[in-house]
């Protein structure tokens, strides 16, 4: 079997130089690195992952922190798309992943401390953003690298990867207003998370711009809440926006059981495109937030930062777009 | 900071003994292991993951192989549930994971070879089962540890974690027959995978037992195929079973667009429970196959096997159960 020493001899460099090439060290000139890599390939040398980990003193593992490991959250295609996309970028760069499984913030903090202290991960991707965040406070204090998928908060100098959710909700509401809707309801999840607050803000701003009243149902926590809201939806409402497509499924299910047809009797629209919306009853108009690009940007920026700790921390906004489907259509005047 | 040497001194054993305790070696008596662990805890010693990896010459990483990384597959809650459950067991045992991202078998084989040669993983969990499997042939030849979530094939001595899908489909078909259905259609995915073949077999057996004719639509590959099948469904069909709940979503969506009500006009049932079925239009009768238990059994058996390579390879069947929801009900005689 070909060893680092064999490669070093052929390339006429020190074995430590070969190690540095393997660990992508900045201390090696591009020319030398290219030469060593060419010889490694010619000789069929494959770096041993464990050995590389030893050389670099890194775990080559990235921790992924979810806001909750509840079943509904995990089955949300948004997270699957983001996680798979992160996983792919990590694998392509020689990193593996560990996913947090805690349900409560205190438990998650404990889990993170353990990962950090045991040197199990090199950095984290945090899949949520909120004001009071003990986990981020801890990571920041230790200068442990992380990237956040979610909203940039106040004076933070962290790296944030996000959509402009205010704008996304504004566009979607405006789109419904343009179809002729004047009474649009918004059903929103938990207020703690920035994404829900922003989508609600965008909805309010679009309604205000058009001189329309708002009808908001906040803090719907589960299927039962949503059923109750839909059952008691005021008669004059002609369209419902939900802050998340999993919640939208519950809205559709309840409307189905009540015998109210979409888009004939009432119209619906939501955020985050996936197979669920494409194959819904009926297919849903939705704001595509490109979860795969969110995951890809987050992972590649974190990995780059792990190799270049002096890198400028630049946040990134991923654009959104509306996909029109059968759940919305031009509203005919009701009084004709 | 507390080191292995400190622990060894206090426990009055050699440092190598402490290392062996950390790596769960069989060579250490239970009594000694317990003592060393107690002292490690008292002294607040946390094993360094990179160091442990060096001691054990293991990557402490498990590779997860999906049958396809197509978007529909990834958004299938079955895989999310299985992956999250595997991920949890791995994390609890100090393992991280890498997920395959290849779409084609040849590409996957190449990916697996690279992971094995670079020592990036200690073993694999294979999330599909089929007759011709070049990846398994390769792993078997190298004696690389793996566990399969899927059907036990012919003479294989591998570890399989599965449901009895013939029985599950038999039960579901029998349940519909008991409700009074005499014309039940079955829409099946790709025939290459054992799970689809088995579910179809169970359906055929239940129909044969009841002296009923079968109506099978095989090899439906995507949304367009399913739409076409539903649009051309023979008039006399009173119930549709689909081999997978993602495909079932497309069936529901098309029935909705055609204005056919469930369960009044036609009834539906499928496999694998998730939020998608609970919040469907209407909520779906389904066979729960307990994906979390499949993932948990697979991961814990693989990890056990990694530590005890002489372990008897025992496969495990996870039981299934029918969950009744609004998509099915007792069929009234049509001719009354």
From TrEMBL, chains A, B:
Keywords: DNA-binding, Transcription, Transcription regulation. Pfam families: LacI, Peripla_BP_3. PROSITE patterns: HTH_CROC1 (PS50943), HTH_LACI_2 (PS50932). Residues 2-56 form the HTH lacI-type domain. The keyword DNA-binding applies. It comes from the Bacteria. GO terms for molecular function: DNA-binding transcription factor activity; transcription cis-regulatory region binding. SUPFAM superfamilies: lambda repressor-like DNA-binding domains (SSF47413), Periplasmic binding protein-like I (SSF53822). Residues 3-46 form the HTH cro/C1-type domain. This is LacI family transcriptional regulator.
